[in-house]
Design brief:
Blueprint (H helix, E strand, L loop, with lengths): L10 H20 L9 H6 L1 H26 L6 H15 L2 H13 L2 H31 L8 H27 L3 H6 L1 H28 L1
């Protein structure tokens, strides 16, 4: 007689994902290391490296915040959720690659090099966002995997954010043909907005939980 396999709890999924994202952030820092001693003027001239790093850091930071919030709402992770989560991590693990391309292209590359690097960065953003969107929609349609009915609404809201990220990536590619710097800067206010919104949303959830306990 076949034995049904129960969905897994999320502790291992969360631990593995946190480890992967931590390694990605570590790899990003390595690109900041100078190849040789630099004067203050040379350090200032290296601003494209810092801008590329900041954009990549906010990308991974947004992924981590959203991932932590999503996992906190999942009761069980079935094989489809596990595979979609791996796909998100695949995209996140690629971020150091376009970051290095952007840094070099903005410092020493030509116009075509900069456009190519920005296109690769946008494609990596898509690789992250598509499985995120798939996981949001899948979990919203399978509430048995979530902890409460309210979590279904959260998954639907996050699905809209994932879809918006895909749109932003497409717009950034178009802008890249006009201005490389403007195309890269487009990501910064978006990621900052996502991070602030996530922090505020978490704080509001905590306040509601405290009020419910006191009632």
């Amino acid at each position: 007689m076949a034995i049904a396999r129960l969905p897994q709890r999320t502790s291992r999924l969360e631990a593995f994902s946190d480890a992967v994202l931590a390694i990605v952030l570590t790899l990003l820092v390595l690109d900041l290391l100078p190849k040789e001693a630099q004067s203050p003027e040379e350090l200032l001239a290296d601003w494209p490296t810092y801008l590329a790093y900041l954009t990549a850091f906010l990308t991974i930071g947004t992924v981590w915040l959203n991932h932590s919030e999503a996992v906190s709402r999942i009761r069980y992770a079935d094989p489809i959720v596990m595979l979609l989560n791996l796909a998100v991590l695949l995209g996140a693990s690629l971020v150091p690659w376009p970051t290095a391309l952007l840094s070099e292209a903005l410092k020493d590359g030509g116009r075509d090099d900069q456009i190519a690097a920005l296109v690769v960065f946008a494609l990596v953003t898509v690789v992250i966002s598509v499985p995120w969107l798939g996981m949001d929609l899948y979990l919203a349609r399978h509430p048995r995997l979530l902890k409460s009915v309210d979590d279904v609404a959260w998954m639907r809201r996050h699905a809209r954010i994932s879809a918006a990220t895909l749109l932003i990536a497409a717009i950034s590619v178009g802008i890249a043909f006009l201005s490389s710097l403007l195309s890269l800067l487009l990501y910064l206010p978006v990621f900052v907005t996502f991070i602030v919104a996530r922090v505020l949303e978490t704080g509001a959830d905590d306040d509601r939980a405290v009020e419910a306990e006191e009632a």
